[in-house]
Amino acid sequence: MTDVQYKGDSKGDVEIAEVEHEKGLSGGTHGPVDIDDGYTQAEIRSTTRKVDRRLIPVLSLLYCISFIDRTNLSLARAANNQVMNKELDLLGGNNRYGLATLIFFVPYIIFEIPSQLGLRAFGARWWLGTACFLWGVVMMCFGFVTNWQGLVGLRAVLGLFECALFPGATYLISCWYPRRQMATRTTFFYVLSVVVCGLSATLAYGLSKLHGRGGYSGWRWIFIINGIMTMVIAVIGMIFIVDFPDRAKFLKPEEKELIETRIERDRGDAEYDPMTLRKFWSYVCDPKLWVFAYIFCTSGTSTYALSYFLPRILLQMGFKGFKSQILVAPPYAWVPIPAMATAILADKYHQRALAISLNSLQVIIGTCMYSKLGANHIAARYAGVFIAVGGSNANMPLAISWAQTAIRRQSKRGYTSAIVVAFGGISGIIAGTSFIEKEAASGYPTGINITLGMTGGSILCCFGLWVWFKLENRRADRAGKVLEEHPDFRYQT
User: Fold this and answer.
1) Where in the sequence is the domain holding 91, given as residue range(s)?
2) Spatial distance between the Cα atoms of 264 and 38, rounded to a whole number of angstroms
């Protein structure tokens, strides 16, 4: 392949059921072989589509409700700001709302890696489905909380249960597909949920109109109804989530063999290897994983900032009342365009560093436009929101899928998913602390500057990885250096 795969050529489309001819690992001493060798185009297409239909939609549904639940706090507050502040005494003391926002990420970060061990031990269906059901119960409890301390405590428990889903879902996807399909599948999973999440502001606005029903404030109904929805979706997940390929029951034996054979030829890790302390420390000492985590963190900072503060940013732009909630949705409908375009660039044209850099440039341009740095006209500023939302959300799946293409071993995949997504939690803390409430009237200058600086750093990291991977691949080709403990492995750039 070329330096973005192993050695050889690649061609084909990037539809969800794509079939491509490309070379991969041979697992032996005779050089790379075609990962599709021995299977017809029809067999590959049929099996891939079968996996796509069972795996991607249900994971997207769970992540959609996960994202809605973690960001509903800002929507509930925007819907009944004065009522919620008064009932929970959020304005007394120092930044109680900010504390409630940030505390979610503490257990979310701490329990990322342990959650991956449970995923393998109990199976994806029960582990992810049960976690979703439990945080649904927590969401419903938000509707009955009576003080700000209870709000903070529930947010912490929510983070504990939600930490299982995103790294678990991306790890599961990486175990089902060859590397050349990871960006498009991970992006499709992520984008499908983000687009639906964009409608959450409209839903929250509608639920807030239940104000007074049953003696409950409108903001409480937002949590109660969403909690019930989450528990229903959790049951759907328990029924339809598919497990790892070696445990798959919905495939025929020959289909299961096809999946496992292609993955083994692609990267030589179709079989699960348990995590050990020695492996764990070797993964901790792998510098490229920390670089991927930083890239994910920069995208997450912009994503969380817009998720938590966009209603306030729109208010500051001049959109009043319900418009500041309703106009949150349209930018998220734009996300699939840059996301799928750059995913195709990453998978089909083997330009992963370029794809992430282009999205990062969108974040920089869009942030300058919607802030007070580069635009005064309200339409131009709102257009900047579209560009920033599109770029930041497009980079989230690209960053984690690129990390998954740069490693081998299933234990390392689980660790990588956990550590990269944990830095997504850190990005939530950065967004929550840098977008300071007292700076809202001036356009959050501290948060804007930090977002721009970190995103610029992400572009430099992409360039650094691109150079490093090319040099490492050249050493492997010319000097026989073994990468990722396999002589035929090559990094993708």
Assistant:
1) 37-479
2) 14
**pTM metric for this prediction:** 0.87
What is the pairing mode between strands 33-34 and 21-24? antiparallel
Model confidence pLDDT, tens digit, residues 56-104: 999 999 999 998 888 888 788 877 767 888 899 887 767 788 788 889 9
Residue 443, by phi and psi: left (phi above 0), alpha (psi -120 to 50) or beta?
Answer: left
Dmax (CA) for the chain in angstroms is 74
How many Å from the N-terminal Cα to the C-terminal Cα in the chain? Answer: 12
In a domain, 422, yes or no: yes
pLDDT at 10 over 80: no
Q: Which residues of 247-285 are buried (b: 16+ CB within 10 A; e: fewer)?
A: ebeebeeebbebbbbbbbbbbbbbebeebeeeeeeebee
**Which residue shows structure tokens 């670089």?**
291
Strands (E) located in 192-287: none
Helix (H, G, I), strand (E, B) or coil at 248: coil
Tokens describing residue 87: 């009932």
Are 491 and 406 spatial neighbours (Cβ–Cβ below 8 Å)? Answer: yes
253: β partners: none
Phi then psi dihedrals of residue 392, to 5 deg: -70, -45
Please tell me the distance from the alpha carbon of residue 201 to that of residue 199, in angstroms, as a whole number.
Answer: 5
The DSSP result for 107-150, as a single string, is: HHHHTHHHHHHHHHHH-HHHHHHHHHHHHHHHHHHHTT--SHHH
Residues contacting 442, CB < 8 A, separation 6+? 372
Q: Is residue 10 situated within a structural domain?
A: no
Residue 91: in which H helix or E strand, if any? none
User: Residue 319 gets which letter from DSSP?
Assistant: -
The CA distance from 213 to 467, in Å, is 61
Q: CB of 250 within 8 A of CB of 244? A: no
For the residues 39-54, what does the mean pLDDT come to? 91
Return the bridge partners of 11, or none: 21
- What's the chain's average pLDDT? 87
Domain CATH for 98: 1.20.1250.20
Element (H, E) at 395: helix 378-405
Give the total number of structural domains in the chain: 1
Handedness of CA 336, 65, 172, 409 (dihedral sign): positive
Rg (CA), the chain: 22
- Alpha-carbon gap, residue 102 to 88, rounded angstroms: 17
443 located within any domain? yes
How far apart, in whole angstroms, are the C-alpha atoms of residue 144 and residue 88? 11
- The C-alpha atoms of residue 73 and residue 382 are separated, in whole angstroms, by 23
Measured CA to CA, the distance from residue 158 to residue 223 in angstroms comes to 12
User: Do the domain assignments include residue 154?
Assistant: yes
